[in-house]
Design a protein that fits this description.
With about 210 residues, this protein is α/β, with parallel strands linked by helices. The protein is about 45% helix and about 10% strand. The chain has nine helices and eight strands. Helix 1 packs across helix 4, helix 5 packs parallel to helix 9 and helix 7 crosses helix 8. The longest helix has 14 residues. The chain starts with a strand and ends with a helix.
């Protein structure tokens, strides 16, 4: 059966509260007003550097290299204070594994906090390959990021599951099918969409 590759933030996990807390602390250290949770959700998806640039720009500031270092140090140390798996997603992973599907993870989040989060939430055993945003020179939407994940899984094709145009564009660049999940942080036009974990399983089954 065709393998399935998942995005992380906004797809498998709701990490926005923890990300927002660290971002707002750094903004506050520069005398800038905090961002609302919905604002931060819309900034997630392209990695920490872009997140900080967007956060500072939204408050009329400019992120510096030391802000990225501060964010990385604090967030990497404990990325799971309020982060949770979205409803039904762990059960969906278990169902896909029970079908005999191989699962991989392809995220623009750095590898270190990715593994810490997966370990803390008990999700690591589901995946045969985990590729972070610093695992290769590329990040989604660059299809080479997804290609590296397929290579690590030793498969030639997979269904990409994500909440962001980056996920869909990476899949399209490799000629792979994708499912857009609407409960996440991004927006995208997609042939296959799911609004619940159960619908996700149905869409994956339809693709094959």
């Amino acid at each position: 059966m065709r393998a399935v590759v998942f995005d992380l933030d906004g797809t498998l996990i709701d990490s926005a509260p923890d990300i927002a807390a660290v971002l707002n602390r750094i903004l506050g250290s520069e005398g800038l007003a905090p961002l609302g949770l919905d604002e931060v959700r819309g900034m997630i998806g392209d990695g920490a550097k872009q997140l900080l640039e967007r956060g500072f720009a939204a408050r009329g500031g400019q992120a510096q290299a030391h802000h990225l270092a501060d964010f990385s140090d604090e967030y990497h140390a404990n990325p799971v204070r309020e982060t949770v798996c979205f409803p039904g997603l762990e059960q969906a992973l278990a169902a896909l594994k029970a079908e005999g599907r191989q699962l991989g993870l392809c995220t623009n989040k750095s590898y270190g906090p990715t593994v810490r989060i997966l370990d803390a939430l008990g999700l690591t055993p589901y995946f045969s390959a985990i590729i972070g945003g610093d695992s290769t020179p590329y990040k989604k939407p660059d299809p080479r990021h997804l290609a590296a994940t397929l290579g690590a899984m030793e498969v030639s094709s997979a269904i990409m599951v994500g909440d962001h145009a980056n996920d869909l564009n990476a899949a399209a660049g490799l000629g792979q099918k994708a499912v857009f999940v609407s409960w996440g942080y991004g927006v995208a036009q997609a042939t296959h969409t799911a609004s619940t974990a159960q619908e996700l399983l149905l869409r994956i089954a339809e693709i094959g």
